[in-house]
Amino acid sequence: MxxxxxxxxxxxxxxxxxxxxxxxxxxxxxxxxxxYVDFFARGETRTPKFRNEISEMGEVPVLLHxxxxxxxSGVCLTYLADRSGEFQPHGEDERLExxxxxxxxxxxxxxxxxxxxxxxxxxxxxxxxxxxxxxxRLDNNLGIVDKRLTKAPYLLGARPTIADISLTGYMYYPxxxxxxxxxxxxxxxxxxxxxIRALPGWRHPYELMPGYxxxxx
Length: 217
Ligand SMILES: N[C@@H](CCC(=O)N[C@@H](CS)C(=O)NCC(=O)O)C(=O)O
What we know:
By secondary structure, the protein is of the alpha+beta class. It has helices at 16-27, 48-53, 73-84, 91-121, 128-149, 162-167, 182-185, 187-197, 205-208; strands at residues 7-11, 32-36, 62-65, 68-71. Helix 1 (16-27) runs parallel beside helix 3, helix 4 (91-121) packs antiparallel against helix 5 (128-149) and helix 5 (128-149) packs across helix 8.
């Protein structure tokens, strides 16, 4: 019988929140395998079984490692950086700075890109008002990240850290799934995307996680 992988990740291909953890596992060369969560057809994250047995927060990603079960991608990234020594912020100042950008990403970058893309591609009906609101917030928030990335190649300076891995969440999904191309509208983010893409082990979210293409029921 084949040995189980060291890490398992509950995820699905369309989840940028899960992608950043899948990408980190790949970049550090971890032995891992995905566990597919049927978010769209079965609404699996909202079932009592998922909330009782996998995550009380009802979200992916969830990372399994030995007897550890971790959720919130920022926590998973921190754990993987601490264990591997890769993409780790060094010292207190960098740790705090990394946390600051991870929270900003979760709330204001991925936290708006995800719902914006969801409304345009996966929701039962379009909602122009909500989309316009989110796009306004995104233009502002992506502008803040873009300005930061004009100052250094990566968020914390000369080398990539988990703050950058967090920011990858929704960055590589096809521009057609949004109505704009982040990399073109925000050139410093575009150049950063290419630097991240060049890291050994980089893979596209649709290659790394199961569930693409989506079979609409
Ligand atoms: N801040 C969380 C966000 C996780 C999240 O929102 N995941 C979505 C999928 S992209 C989810 O599982 N949503 C469950 C639901 O809406 O029922 C993280 O970074 O892990």
